[in-house]
């Protein structure tokens, strides 16, 4: 039975259903719908990386790093651990928006395990091909991530 202002929800206390405000149930439904809508609009990869960026964190004792601040004021940091000419470990850090975090994740995923020349070929457009759904205003995040990767590679090459 559904009442005007209260209904039985899925919550239980000591094994018995607990009355839950209709507004709570409605807000939960709205949140679920909004999440599904975002995933459909932005694409599964971008949506997942917005929620849980991969390879994020500042690396201790990297072989090289690159730090770039974009015209938007956001900073992207890429850290590399290179053995021979192969990127064995990579991580990134950004103080930017969710799109920056997603782009940093993709740049790191694409470069991980690659030799230096292949990693240096990763461009902003490469990242955009993986992250379909970025708005025009967000595309600069992909180029920022690529620039930080290139800076880290360049800094490593200078020491060779």
From TrEMBL:
<feature type="domain" description="NIF system FeS cluster assembly NifU N-terminal">
    <location>
        <begin position="42"/>
        <end position="159"/>
    </location>
</feature>
<dbReference type="GO" id="GO:0005506">
    <property type="term" value="F:iron ion binding"/>
</dbReference>
<dbReference type="Pfam" id="PF01592">
    <property type="entry name" value="NifU_N"/>
</dbReference>
<protein>
    <recommendedName>
        <fullName>NIF system FeS cluster assembly NifU N-terminal domain-containing protein</fullName>
    </recommendedName>
</protein>
<dbReference type="GO" id="GO:0051536">
    <property type="term" value="F:iron-sulfur cluster binding"/>
</dbReference>
<dbReference type="GO" id="GO:0016226">
    <property type="term" value="P:iron-sulfur cluster assembly"/>
</dbReference>
<dbReference type="InterPro" id="IPR002871">
    <property type="entry name" value="NIF_FeS_clus_asmbl_NifU_N"/>
</dbReference>
């Amino acid at each position: 039975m559904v009442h005007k202002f209260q209904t039985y929800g899925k919550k239980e206390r000591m094994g018995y259903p607990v009355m839950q405000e209709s507004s709570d149930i409605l807000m939960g439904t709205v949140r679920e719908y909004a999440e599904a809508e975002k995933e459909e609009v932005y694409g599964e990869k971008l949506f997942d990386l917005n929620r849980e960026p991969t390879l994020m964190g500042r690396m201790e004792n990297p072989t090289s790093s690159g730090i770039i601040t974009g015209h938007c004021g956001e900073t992207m940091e890429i850290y590399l651990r290179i053995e021979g000419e192969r990127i064995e470990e990579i991580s990134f850090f950004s103080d930017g928006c969710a799109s920056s975090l997603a782009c940093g994740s993709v740049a790191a995923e694409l470069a991980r395990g690659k030799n230096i020349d292949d990693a240096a070929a990763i461009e902003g457009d490469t990242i955009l091909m993986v992250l379909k759904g970025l708005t025009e205003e967000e595309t600069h995040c992909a180029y920022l991530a690529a620039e930080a990767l290139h800076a880290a590679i360049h800094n490593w090459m200078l020491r060779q």
